[in-house]
Design brief:
The chain is of the alpha/beta class and about 220 residues long. Helix 2 links the parallel strand 2 and strand 3. The relative contact order is 0.17. A 7-stranded mixed beta sheet has the order 3-2-1-4-6-5-7, sandwiched between helices. Helices cover about 40% and strands about 15% of the residues. The radius of gyration is 16 Å and the shape is globular. It is built from 8 helices and 7 strands, in the order βαβαβαβαββαααβα.
Length: about 220
């Protein structure tokens, strides 16, 4: 059984162009930091950066990280359509012959690998089609993690036609009446108001300072 963390990333962003290539105090770019954290998730066998075919600079950033890191789990790159993210995921899953998919977005460089591991564990224990930590949200924005079966993903790719569903990957899965779902809850639900996702310049300043604080405390 193969479990893959697939990270969706792109350069295009109206509010903060090229945000996935911004540098962080860790010495890594945003997309590289997310990949780095995904490799630390317990139970993940492979990490895949799924990016648009036209994002050459982003492709180079991922390949640069792949050249400099030879640990486990391995990292792969998958190129696909920019706006049909559902197809990008489905094609990557089929090429990998993955059984379980974890969806991560590249605008969350403070992603918590332990929380992601907990979502995967709950998914396996409950034997569901889909599990997350966002329905309802009790974790900080930027800790988002979703796990689902490849069967659910491929079915969504085959049946979903609405542009929203093609762009947001899991919206068709979670609204399907036959989808068995689970969700994990934070022990400190008040933290759900914290925002650690990268959409604009203000977000970048907050995230950068949070990294600096954690590095100073020795827990980056």
């Amino acid at each position: 059984m193969l479990t893959a963390a697939i990270i969706q990333a792109r350069i295009g962003s109206s509010r903060l162009p090229r945000k996935t290539l911004l540098p962080l105090p860790t010495g890594r770019l945003v997309v590289q930091e997310v990949i780095h954290r995904c490799r630390q998730i317990k139970g993940i066998d492979i990490v895949v950066a799924a990016i648009p075919e036209s994002d050459f600079d982003l492709e180079q950033a991922v390949r640069s990280y792949m050249r400099d890191n030879h640990g486990f789990p391995p990292v792969q790159l998958h190129l696909g359509p920019e706006h049909d993210v559902l197809k990008r995921y489905a094609d990557a899953a089929k090429l990998l012959k993955a059984d379980i998919i974890m969806r991560i977005t590249a605008d969350c460089p403070l992603l918590d690998s332990r929380v992601c591991g907990d979502v995967l564990w709950q998914f396996l224990v409950d034997k569901v089609d889909y599990c997350s930590n966002v329905h309802p949200r009790t974790f900080p924005v930027g800790y988002d993690c979703e796990v689902f079966t490849s069967e659910a993903l491929l079915a969504a790719d085959a049946m979903a036609t609405a542009p929203y569903d093609r762009e947001h990957v899991t919206s068709f899965i979670v609204t399907h009446p036959d989808c068995r779902q689970a969700n994990i809850v934070s022990v400190d639900p008040l933290r759900r108001h914290i925002r650690w996702t990268l959409d604009d310049v203000d977000d970048y300043a907050i995230i950068y300072k949070e990294f600096q604080r954690r590095i100073a405390e020795g827990r980056a």
